Amino acid sequence: MDVKKLLLAVCTLMVAVGLAGCGFSMSDVSDIRDIIMGEQGDVQQTTPPAVNEEETPLDDGTDETLREAADQLQDEIPEEEIQPPEEEPVSLAELLTEDEEMLRENVKERFLRYVQIDTPSDPESETSPSSENQMMLARQIAEEMQGFGVTDVSVDEYGYVYASIPANIEGQPVIGLIAHLDTTPEVNGASIRTSEIENYDGSDIALDAEGNVVLSVSEFPQMNQFIGHEIIVTDGMTLLGGDGKAGVAEIMTLCEYLMLHPEIEHGLIQIAFTPDKEIGRGVDHFDLVNFGANFAYTLDGDVLSSGVQSETFNEARAQVIIQGVDVYPGNAKDQMKNAALIAAEFAAMLPPLETPAYTEGYEGFYHVGTIEGAAEQATLSIQICDYSQENFEARKTMIQTIADYLNGRYGAGTVQVEMEDQSYNMEEMMGEHQDVIDRALQALQAVGYEAVTTPNRGTTDGATLSFQGLPCPNLPTGVANKHGVYECASVDQMTDVVKLLVYLTSVEETESVE
Fold it and tell me: What CATH number does residue 189 fall under?
């Protein structure tokens, strides 16, 4: 029987039962039925007919008969047909699409706020953190997390921020997310003035008012990936600070979003923000035991096309100290030993095509970061990088060989080398953790990017943590041209990274990587 007709019959019978004792006729009930079915025009308010007190109410069992009939009809309606319809659950993809504008505004606002705090690490400092502003940013983001309900938030004496997002489903691995607070000390990051360009058209960008500092697409072809995006740049006088702080903003936006959406199922998520990564001390005081993750990811990559990174350089730093002899130039013949010139000679003896400007992919390099000094004394700071352990050792031998040659030429003790390994290629430790890499590739694919892996042409906190027993590949952040005044952040890609993190940490399955 049609549900609508059944319900109409029930209503009609019940009305009849209720009105019979009040003197209403069945024609009145019929009228009511027509109103219910929409068979009359506008309902006019009328005065009910007066009850004839002389009429005797039905006392022949009609009331009981009608009620029994109504009960019978009610019983005939299948239970499932009278239950309210269940709402279809919203998929994670649909939810993220609905909330995309909110995620976009939140990650952008945070990023612009964080970059205003100048947080360079200081290689000359012996404290941790090496600069006070890193502690300032640490306390600010800890307070912010507490404000939207993240638990176990703390800032330790070394400037590390730790926090937890409690699990809302059992049986899931504990996932860690890590970003760094500091910026490179090699470029000024104070008094940053940002500019926002909507719908970037792919042309060169004059960063300063005079047009002397131009972000050229021919020199920075990765800008082509930002065409149509909203991008953020500086005035060409400072860093943007995107390296690190984009990752912080993205993780913070994820934390807020998961607290707003408890229906998104996830296991325990551990958060950490580290100081001094840019000077190789990012995990010197990392509390790995209490962090307690099964695996983790650093957010310290570039544009999203770089994909997931589970290979890093073997890296060492060499400090070359040259002791000269400074005398009056007019009487210097056979006496002066100009340390500044010897430093330049040392740098010139390095293979000229094995520098960052001429290498890519899996090619290693020597990078002379600074040359300082005068005739009396000079120093060089040299970064030594290679993916191959064998080539890495050969490069370190080359540095010592040059020093030995110059000592033979200018006298013993003229050149001294202090060399220290900084980190090693995490590939050695990630070989048994392909599932951790695949999880990130699936999340990358879920937000519309190709599931690819590329080598990180540098190192990360995750490389050292991987050797300490915590598998920790690297993820992109949506920032290009890092460590210089040409840094550029895509708001579109930063938003996509937040969505990637939601997929990465949730239990909703994504498509397998082919």
Answer: 3.40.630.10
In a domain, residue 514? The reply is no
pTM for the structure as a whole? 0.80
Same domain, 223 and 362: no
CA-wise closest residue to 179 among 308, 299, 287: 299
> Does residue 414 share a domain with residue 308?
no
Of 364, 440, 434, which Cα lies nearest the Cα of 398?
Answer: 364
Helices (H) and strands (E) in the chain, counts: 14, 16
Alpha-carbon distance 377 to 341, whole Å?
Answer: 10
Q: How confident is the model at residue 497 (pLDDT cuts 50, 70, 90)?
A: very high
pLDDT at 169 over 70: yes
Give the closest residue to 488 by CA, choosing from 113, 181, 221, 164: 221
Supply the pLDDT for residue 86: 56
Evaluate whether residue 512 is within a structural domain: no
Greatest mean pLDDT among 9-13, 134-138, 185-189 lies in 134-138
Q: Are residues 202 and 340 in the same domain?
A: no
Domain assignment present for 435:
yes
Query: What's the mean pLDDT in 347-360?
Result: 96
In terms of domains, do 406 and 489 share one?
A: no
Give the torsion through C-alpha atoms of 257, 261, 266, 268, to 10 deg. 60
Q: Give CA–CA dist 489/242, Å, rounded.
A: 7
Q: Which amino acid is at 99?
A: D
CB 207 within 8 A of CB 235: yes
Rounded mean pLDDT, 154-162? 97
Same domain, 377 and 485: no
In a domain, 163, yes or no: yes
Distance CA 241, CA 389 (A): 32
Count the domains in the chain: 3
Distance CA 115, CA 193 (A): 9
The mean pLDDT of 45-65, rounded to a whole number, is 47
Residue 8 pLDDT greater than 60, yes or no = no
- In this structure, the number of other CB atoms found within 10 A of the CB of residue 18 comes to 13
The residue out of 406, 421, 436 marking a domain boundary is 421
